[in-house]
Amino acid sequence: MAMTKNPMIFKFNENTKYSLEDALASKAGQLRTKIDKGESLTQEEMNWLTNECSSNTFSKKGIPIGGYLIYFFDILKPFAVEYDNHLSKVFAPNKESVFNFIEETYDIDENQSDYEPIDVYSLTLLERA
Asked: What's the mean pLDDT when you consider all of the chain?
């Protein structure tokens, strides 16, 4: 992977037609820029970031955009999620983003009679989040 000026953005496809500016103009690039400036993300932005990182197969700590990988490992924390006798690992900025991602992924409605609670454990603190 080729390094760019920003160590959180790597060019992984030398033959891409996209430029670094194109990658930075994307939503992921705008969030990366916002984080680099020290600005806080809204909960909606954190939910989007969790969904995008958890849904792509290229990286669980970054988002591929046009031959570039925009990393977010500096703000993503590992969480273990137990739901419906299934254990999975999700990287997210906070616990609320994990719940939102799992509820969307499994189409969970807390008002259903067969609702099963979701258990989320922080793997960085090694205690229940």
From this structure: 83
**Ramachandran class of 56: left when φ > 0, alpha when ψ lies in -120 to 50, beta otherwise:** beta
C-alpha to C-alpha distance for 119 and 41, rounded to whole angstroms? 24
Name the 3-class secondary structure at 90: strand
CB of 89 closer than 8 Å to CB of 123: yes
At 28-41, the pLDDT tens digits run 999 999 999 999 99
- Report how far residue 83's alpha carbon sits from residue 117's, in angstroms, rounded to the nearest whole number: 7
Where exactly are the structural domains of the chain?
A: 2-71, 77-128
**pTM value?**
0.81
